[in-house]
């Protein structure tokens, strides 16, 4: 189109920025802030329907939230809440399985639990990204916290609520609590301290009795889930601990009979202990109302079942009107909750209908405000005076209003998609003009790539294809390999090539079966599970991976020549220093992994235990002391910092010396290899050996593309296609999915002392996208220094020797990836607009939009463009 | 473009014995005829039995008991395939079918495809078939598939492997495949099996979405369609 490369770059960067801006505007329109009714509710008429014998059922409450308390943890026969089981059997506790509306993350759930509304999807991201952010406060929205505090019949003072636990509450209600202490919910590797920080307040609180409401939010169980899953060895003691706290609270309310205890989980967890999505495990939270005044006898514990079918299944937001009725205050304005039948039986027969009418009046007010006086309203005004009729209508309306989508901001959606659409058209035109004007390129390859992108982008229109995207990538990778094998690699020409090609296929097969991905199939027949069962093999493989990558850092690139220092007798001094730097950093990183496993409560093989004891001794700690966990936390932070420091220090030295000594060849390889060490540092133990396979695959690709680099455009297109396939394949093989539930936080706090949104965000990205980053960097290596990958030393086929071409090579590479992302994003937003009233829009498409945003911003722009640019021009 | 030119260069070298005076078109035709044995009456080798086998498998409840029905249908399909192979043989050109021990060829076609099921299983695994839990099913699939692919090829080439490899050196490999009913049947059996995997991850939750029913259906139907496609040249 235009000959000048600078002009090309300027256009490209404008398109990239347009893509980003368009996506951001689209997201702003797609996830608008929710419209809520302002103001606070009052009783519909002066006669208060909730009073029982002219006084409220309860005066005080204790809300005990146990994060991620799934219903089977409380009610199944494998549960360890034995005290609770007794209460249920005696009729003193009313148990429920409470459906928590996705996204099943703490912040949106707490909003739901307190206001009774269905939260905005964007709350899920705010939950991860919040830091000193006051925009989420609920001070303007009606909630039972507000209603409880201000509705006071006797005097004008506000009632006192004290709060201890997860500091998300403090962000939601910054001025509502009298005494409080918040603990940060993001430090997931701590199981004991977070809960002790809550429990230690109980002594004074239960003694001084200076409150009307007490809210406790325990985080330990959720942390155990994130780290070890629902079957972790820490789960049983934690459940017993929670049960004992419940029994303490119960003995308190035996003396203060006007106090109600609510024990609940804010959400559940899935089979691997994460949450955020909409699977049955994540949405089935436990909920129990406990008081010695109750007498609703039910059998407990119940047999464990896969559907989490324990007792009456209600909606979690039903808690809001239940609390309103029991504690006697108006139901908050935006609540969609319905008072459940079991609770209604606490009042005499004559009062029940009145209570339910109060509930339905409040919901209908909300319904009319949003939808106008429709048929449903007519139906309600003519409703017969029966409990069943009211329940039927209420549940119908609740269902309709909780599942209906929020109001979209069509102005932003149209603007965003228009920008995206135009920039995509320009990208497609540029791509086609460029590639069809290149001489000496196989037209078939271009057509193949375009078909591949088109087919891939079409998958966004099917919800199950998004959920099972890993299958798609496996399919595409094998098609690409088959195509390239026949037309590019010459795999069928010689025995050596055939052998290499088969090994590459085998590598892909192994990568694929490493982890479960997707929503549909989950089995234990995968390598990661096998390795966690065979820890000795796992640690041998981890050690081998560290060894191979370290060796690669040492011999593959230009480290040796950079640090070579010849001065009289000190011939090897430089080599020695580089050797020490590299090996020490990988050893420390390896030790950190051992330490981390120990802290997580995983088993370690004998030699690793010796190493662990040695680490502890070097920090002057006796392995069998009691408060070891707390100290270990500090050590792990310092070890991780040390390892990271060494890794980046080595890289820094390499770059500085390389620049000073003008060593061009090998820089990219060295940086990639050293960063690979850091990526391994940020990866889950059972996934570390994947890097060994990735390393082998990279080696084979470089072998198969031997001497093909001089047909430059064809070479770039081939490498970029392969890299795209491998990036995505690896991403899903690390156990990632397109659901927020699988975001892995276990390595997001390596070396972090306190929560820091930028640092933790960065580490979360690196630990979840480590395979993707690996392939991005490998792409540079393959393009510029593929002879080093083959351990061959300098070769004239390496494109690094053509510095004048650097700019255009990099431009073509980015054009190819931009083409992929641009076509995909247009299809994705097209499908989101098309299916915006679809049932799965919040559970499938919205998370995918967020993931795609991460891919575009972090992978395509940050890594592929920005960091790659730095690496190339260093 | 370079790679294509290179390949055509090779082809010319390998067929240099052909009479240089004959026109170019005739030369190409004779190359194709030499490399790919033509089938005399392609309509009679359309594999209608593929459809019957698929129908039979569903009739006997493959969705309820995948493994045993796959095994039974494989055993049932052996005599059918035997007869079908005989039909193919009868439609081979004279020069290919003389000096061949017919009974030995037919028996070996069944046995060799049985043996080749093992490497085919490995290839299926490399291309993503599950290993641990579904091994038996995958193996039965490779039995079926190997019979669909290898046994017609063995008959077509009368066990002449060299002749078969010449196919890949042809310039116009696709047109020669799609004009030969057996070759296009084999290719589309493979392609159908490959595409057959697509419905499995969809969330329709039907019993026929089990592994490997869709692949099996894809393979059989693909073969049938493939032999139909080869008839197009007669319509023109």
Would you write up a description of this structure?
The complex is a heterodimer of chains A (874) and B (236). Chain A has 874 residues and is mainly alpha-helical. Among the domains of chain A are: 249 residues, Alkaline Phosphatase, subunit A (3-Layer(aba) Sandwich), CATH 3.40.720.10; 334 residues, no CATH class. Helices cover 59% and strands 5% of the residues of chain A. In chain A, helix 7 links the parallel strand 3 and strand 4. In chain A, helix 28 runs antiparallel to helix 29. Chain A is globular. About 1% of the residues of chain A have low confidence. With 236 residues, chain B is mainly α. Chain B has one domain. Helix content of chain B is 69%, strand content 0%. In chain B, helix 6 crosses helix 7. The longest helix of chain B is centred in the N-terminal third of the chain and has 25 residues. The N terminus of chain B is likely disordered. The chains are: A mainly alpha (874), B mainly alpha (236). At the A-B interface, helix 20, helix 21 and helix 22 of A face helix 1 of B. Chain A: InterPro entries: Alkaline_phosphatase_core_sf, Phosphodiest/P_Trfase, PIG-G_N, PIGG/GPI7, PIGG/GPI7_C. Chain A: Belongs to the PIGG/PIGN/PIGO family. PIGG subfamily.
Descriptors:
heterodimer; A: 874 residues; mainly alpha; Alkaline Phosphatase, subunit A; 35 helices; 8 strands; globular; B: 236 residues; 12 helices; PIGG/GPI7 (chain A)
Set down the secondary structure blueprint.
The complex is a heterodimer of chains A (874) and B (236).
Chain A (H helix, E strand, L loop, with lengths): L4 H26 L29 E7 L4 H5 L6 H9 L2 E7 L6 H10 L6 H8 L14 H7 L10 E6 L1 H5 L7 E4 L9 H7 L2 H7 L4 E6 L1 H9 L6 H21 L3 E6 L15 H4 E7 L21 E4 L3 H9 L13 H4 L4 H23 L3 H7 L5 H17 L6 H27 L6 H16 L4 H5 L1 H19 L7 H18 L14 H7 L1 H21 L3 H5 L9 H27 L6 H13 L9 H33 L6 H15 L8 H15 L7 H22 L23 H12 L1 H20 L16 H29 L6 H33 L1
Parallel strand pairs in A: 1-5, 1-6, 2-8, 3-4, 3-5
Antiparallel strand pairs in A: 2-7, 6-7
Helix pairs in contact in A: 1-18, 1-34, 1-35, 15-17, 18-34, 19-34, 21-22, 21-31, 22-30, 24-26, 24-29, 24-30, 26-27, 26-28, 28-29, 29-33, 30-33, 31-33, 31-34, 33-35, 34-35
Chain B lengths: L1 H13 L9 H12 L12 H12 L6 H25 L3 H4 L4 H25 L8 H22 L4 H6 L6 H7 L1 H15 L17 H17 L2 H4 L1
Helix pairs in contact in B: 3-4, 3-11, 4-6, 4-7, 6-7, 7-10, 7-11, 9-10, 10-11
């Amino acid at each position: 189109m235009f000959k000048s490369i600078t002009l090309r770059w300027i256009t490209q960067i404008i398109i990239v920025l347009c893509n980003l801006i368009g996506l951001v505007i689209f997201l702003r329109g797609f996830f608008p802030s929710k419209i809520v009714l302002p103001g606070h509710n009052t009783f519909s008429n002066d006669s208060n329907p909730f009073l029982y014998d002219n006084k409220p059922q309860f005066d005080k409450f204790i809300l005990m939230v146990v994060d991620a308390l799934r219903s089977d943890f409380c009610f199944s026969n494998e549960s360890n809440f034995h005290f609770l089981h007794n209460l249920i059997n005696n009729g003193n506790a009313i148990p429920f399985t409470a459906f928590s509306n996705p996204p099943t993350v703490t912040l949106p759930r707490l909003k739901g639990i307190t206001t009774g509304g269905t939260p905005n999807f964007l709350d899920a991201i705010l939950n991860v990204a919040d830091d000193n952010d006051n925009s989420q406060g609920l001070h303007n929205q009606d909630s039972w916290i507000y209603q409880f505090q201000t509705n006071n019949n006797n005097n004008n003072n506000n009632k006192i609520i004290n709060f201890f636990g997860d500091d998300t509450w403090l962000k939601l209600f910054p001025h509502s609590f009298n005494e409080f202490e918040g603990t940060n919910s993001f430090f997931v590797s701590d199981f004991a301290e977070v809960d002790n920080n809550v429990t230690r307040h109980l002594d004074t609180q239960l003694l001084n009795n200076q409150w009307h409401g007490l809210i406790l939010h325990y985080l330990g169980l959720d942390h155990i889930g994130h780290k070890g899953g629902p079957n972790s060895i820490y789960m049983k003691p934690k459940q017993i601990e929670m049960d004992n706290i419940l029994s303490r609270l119960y003995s308190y309310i035996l003396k203060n009979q006007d106090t109600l205890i609510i024990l609940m989980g804010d959400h559940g967890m899935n089979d691997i202990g994460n949450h955020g999505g909409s699977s049955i495990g994540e949405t089935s939270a436990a909920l129990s109302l406990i008081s010695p005044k109750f007498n609703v006898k039910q059998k407990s514990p119940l047999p464990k079942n896969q559907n989490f079918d324990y007792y009456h299944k209600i909606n979690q937001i039903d808690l809001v009107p239940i609390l309103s009725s029991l504690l006697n205050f108006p139901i908050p304005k935006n609540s969609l909750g319905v008072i459940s039948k079991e609770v209604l039986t606490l009042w005499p027969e004559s009062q029940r209908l009145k209570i339910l009418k109060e509930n339905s009046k409040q919901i209908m007010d909300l319904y009319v405000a949003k939808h106008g006086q429709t048929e449903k309203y007519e139906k309600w005004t003519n409703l017969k005076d029966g409990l069943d009729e009211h329940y039927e209508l209420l549940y119908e309306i609740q269902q309709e209003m909780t599942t209906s989508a929020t109001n979209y901001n069509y102005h932003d959606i149209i603007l965003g998609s228009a920008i995206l659409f135009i920039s995509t058209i320009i990208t497609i035109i540029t791509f086609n003009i460029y590639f069809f004007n290149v001489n000496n390129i196989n037209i078939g390859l271009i057509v193949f790539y375009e078909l591949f992108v088109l087919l891939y982008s079409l998958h966004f229109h099917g919800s199950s294809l998004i959920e099972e995207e890993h299958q798609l990538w496996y399919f595409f990778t094998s098609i690409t390999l088959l195509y390239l094998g026949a037309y590019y690699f010459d795999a069928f020409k010689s025995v050596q090539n055939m052998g290499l090609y088969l090994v590459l296929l085998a590598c892909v097969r192994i990568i694929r079966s490493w982890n479960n991905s997707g929503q549909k199939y989950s089995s234990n027949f995968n390598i990661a599970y096998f390795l966690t069962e065979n820890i000795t093999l796992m640690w041998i493989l981890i050690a081998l991976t560290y060894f191979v990558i370290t060796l690669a850092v040492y011999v593959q690139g230009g480290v040796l020549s950079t640090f070579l220092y010849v001065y009289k007798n000190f011939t090897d001094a430089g080599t020695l220093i580089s050797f020490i730097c590299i090996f020490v950093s990988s050893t420390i990183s390896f030790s950190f992994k051992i330490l981390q496993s120990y802290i997580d409560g995983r088993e370690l093989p004998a030699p690793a235990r010796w190493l662990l004891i040695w680490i502890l001794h070097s920090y002057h700690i006796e392995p069998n002391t009691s408060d070891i966990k707390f100290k270990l936390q500090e050590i792990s932070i310092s070890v991780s910092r040390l390892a990271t420091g060494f890794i980046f220090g080595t890289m820094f030295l390499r770059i500085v010396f390389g620049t000073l000594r003008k060593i061009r060849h090998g820089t990219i390889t060295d940086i990639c290899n050293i960063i690979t060490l850091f990526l391994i540092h940020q990866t889950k133990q059972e996934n570390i050996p994947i890097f060994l396979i990735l390393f082998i695959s990279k080696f084979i690709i470089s072998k198969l593309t031997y001497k093909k680099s001089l047909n430059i455009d064809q070479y770039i297109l081939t490498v970029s296609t392969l890299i795209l396939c491998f990036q995505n394949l690896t991403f899903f093989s690390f156990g990632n999915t397109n659901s927020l539930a699988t975001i892995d936080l276990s390595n997001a706090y390596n070396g972090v002392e306190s929560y820091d949104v930028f640092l933790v965000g960065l580490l979360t990205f690196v630990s979840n996208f480590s395979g993707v980053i690996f392939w991005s960097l490998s792409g540079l290596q393959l393009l510029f220094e593929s002879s080093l990958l083959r351990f061959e030393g300098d070769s004239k086929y390496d494109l690094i020797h053509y510095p004048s071409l650097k700019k255009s090579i990099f431009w073509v590479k980015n054009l190819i990836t931009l083409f992929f992302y641009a076509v995909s994003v247009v299809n994705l937003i097209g499908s989101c607009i098309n299916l915006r009233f679809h049932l799965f829009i919040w559970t499938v498409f919205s998370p995918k939009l967020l993931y795609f945003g991460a891919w575009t911003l972090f992978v395509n722009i940050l890594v592929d463009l920005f960091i790659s640019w730095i690496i190339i021009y260093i | 473009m370079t790679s294509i030119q290179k390949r055509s260069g090779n082809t010319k070298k390998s067929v240099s014995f052909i009479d240089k005076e004959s026109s170019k078109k005739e030369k190409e035709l004779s190359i194709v005829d030499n490399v790919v044995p033509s089938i005399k009456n392609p309509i009679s080798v359309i594999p209608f039995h593929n459809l019957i086998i698929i129908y039979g498998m569903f009739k006997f409840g493959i969705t309820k008991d995948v493994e045993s029905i796959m095994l039974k249908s494989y055993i049932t399909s052996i005599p059918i395939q035997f007869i079908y192979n005989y039909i193919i043989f009868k439609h081979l050109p004279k020069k290919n079918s003389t000096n061949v021990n017919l009974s030995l060829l037919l028996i070996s076609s069944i046995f060799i495809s049985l043996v080749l099921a093992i490497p085919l299983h490995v290839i299926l695994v490399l291309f993503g078939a599950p290993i641990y839990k579904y091994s038996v099913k995958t193996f039965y699939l490779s039995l079926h598939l190997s019979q669909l692919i290898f046994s017609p090829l063995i008959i077509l080439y009368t066990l002449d492997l060299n002749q078969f490899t010449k196919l890949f050196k042809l310039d116009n490999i696709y047109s020669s495949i799609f004009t030969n009913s057996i070759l296009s049947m084999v290719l589309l059996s493979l392609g159908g099996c490959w595409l057959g995997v697509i419905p499995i991850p969809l969330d329709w939750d039907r019993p026929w979405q089990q592994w490997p029913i869709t692949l099996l259906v894809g393979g059989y139907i693909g073969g049938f369609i493939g032999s139909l496609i080869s008839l197009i040249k007669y319509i023109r």
